[in-house]
Every structure is written in structure tokens, then in C-alpha cells.
Predict the 3D structure of the following.
Amino acid sequence: MSVRILGIETSCDETAAAVVEDGQAILSNVIASQVTLHAQYGGVFPEMASREHVKAITPVVQQALREAHVGWCDLDAIAVTYGPGLPGSLLVGLNFAKGAAFGQGLPLVPVNHLEGHLYAHWLRTDTLQAKILDFPLLALIVSGGHTELILMRDHGQYEYLGGTLDDAAGEAFDKVARMLELGYPGGPAIEAAARRGNPRAFELPRAWLSDSYDFSFSGLKTAVLRALKKYNGPRPAHLVEDMAASFQAAVVEVLAEKTARAAREFGVNSVLLSGGVSANTVLRQAVRTRVTEPVYALPLVLCTDNAAMIAAAGTYRFQEGVRADWDLDIAPGLPLAKRSA
Ligand code: KG4
Ligand code: ZN
């Protein structure tokens, strides 16, 4: 018997719903992005995000059911992100999911958003074949809100190896893009500009933080700002492209080096790249050059926030018997795992 789960995701600025079968087959994956709305503020405006979720959630869920050709009675459960994320945004998805589960008599499965980013790797699409993933696995989750290195020893067993002490990698891309007047979101704009720039044009700092698996990008961001301040008058040709390329090279080098070192230390069988920043082709290439084991990246739609990944993670939790209590609250700072000793 197959298990069909409706996933709901509203932790940041994407209102998303998806139907997934057996944690692998995507029957539908609907995403209403608010990116153009937030672009005018240069970043996500939390209150606006919550209000957009309120408007979008019902039509997005209806569309996900319609595109999957299923009704409520064909579902086994509803999986919903309850953290980490923006409080007001999480509340909309969780409350909707509770109401729907209660009304339809379906079990509700709580999902950690970061766990969703990991389980995106178990999904299949027309262009993406199911892969055999042998534990232990190392995952680098890099997005607008997260930069984490996670060791996954089995389904549901995570060890936190390190993470950012200040800005997330995607946040650094977004902030530097703003300094370079490249618009929002910054990651794709920086990657595009960097293709025409020289990554060695500016010597920018790399925060190695000795032998830890932690990251820090605030010093790098300040160094970019300081370097740009020297050009008060007309900016020389290629300044933006060269700075974009130099900045990207600095972020990518630290992410890729630490990922490769962790892969060696823990003897993992494969490396999984997840989150919006993992769409970056220079990062993918840099990790692949340094790691001997298979390195898996995802199609863009599964790198960034979506509900198929929440349904996939929810399927595993559902099969383990995990159910939400009706008084479940949001958990905006929910960690995926404790820091290993
Ligand atoms: O996973 P995601 O959609 O949302 C969060 O959970 O935060 O990630 C969005 C982040 C943004 O900061 C965006 O600038 C970054 O991913 N991003 C990229 C690229 N595409 C998106 N960063 C670097 N290179 C890219 N090609
Ligand atoms: Zn995310």
C-alpha cells in the first residue's frame, strides 16, 4: 500500500503545498513565491510574508490536490513545517494544516524545515532518478537562513557538525548583492556577474575558525564594503563583476574545504548539497573537485524552499508513528540536531 502525504511549507517567503507518494514520487509541487514583493525591500519583510501566506495558502493547497488528481480522502496524512523559520509565516502553515487535518480526520505530522531540505534528496522527478543513498551521509545545507554541516547516520539520526556563527551563506550573498546594486535575491545575480569577473581581483578574507566546522561570513561582508568604499567617484570597469567573483570564490572555498574535510573525517558514502545556495554551480563544482565520494545536488526547484521535501521527510516520520498533538506550537528556532561534542 502506498502512502500519500500532503506537505505544507510556509517558513519563509514561499507558500508551498505538494503531494508525494511513498516519500519519493512527486504527484504535485506548487510554490507561490513572494520574491517580487520582497525585492522592493531588498530582503524578506516578515509581516508582509505572513499576510501573503494567508492569502495564498488555500489556493495553493487546492492546486496541489488538483494537480496530483487526489482528493482529501486519498491522503494518509498532512505533513507541515513547524520550525525553524519566521514566526508569523510558520503560524499560517501550521494553523492551516491543523484545521485541515482536524476537519478531514487526517493525522498531522510535524516536520523540521531542515530535515525537509535533506529529504529532498530522496525525491524522484521526471529528470531525477531515485538514487541509492548509503549512510553515513554528509549534508551541507546552505540557504538564506541556514549554513549547516550535518552528519546523517541513518533516517532521522543527525549530528550537527557546525554552522554559521553570524550570517547565513545566502544572507551574505544577498547583502553583498545589495552593496553591488545587483538586486534581490542576490545569489543568482552574483553568480551571473561573477561569470564575467576575475575571482583573484580582490584579496578577501576566509574565516577558517581553526579546525572547527563552523562558518562566519560577517568579516568577509565588511571587507567587501571597505573595498568598495575606496571607489567614491566613478567605478572602474569590471568592478562589480570582479568583486562578485572574488566574494563568491571566498564563500565557496570555505564551504567546499570544510565539507571535504568533514567527508574525510567521518568516512561518509556521499555528500548531499541542499538549500538555495546549493543552486550555485561554482559551489557544486568546488565540492565535487575536493570530494572523492559522489556529491549530489538537486534541480533548482528542490534546492529552494518547497513542500515536496516536507512531504518526503513527513513520510519517514509518519511511518515511524510520529504525530503532532493538537496543541503543537511553532518552533522558530528549532535545531535539527545537537552540536556533537
Ligand atoms: O533555500 P532558500 O530558497 O530559502 C531559505 O530557506 O532561505 O534559499 C534562498 C537563498 C537566497 O539567499 C539566495 O540568494 C540564495 O539562496 N541563492 C543562491 C543562488 N540561488 C539562490 N546563492 C548563490 N548562488 C545561487 N545561484
Ligand atoms: Zn529553506
Remarks:
- The CA atoms of residues 15 and 36 lie 14 Å apart.
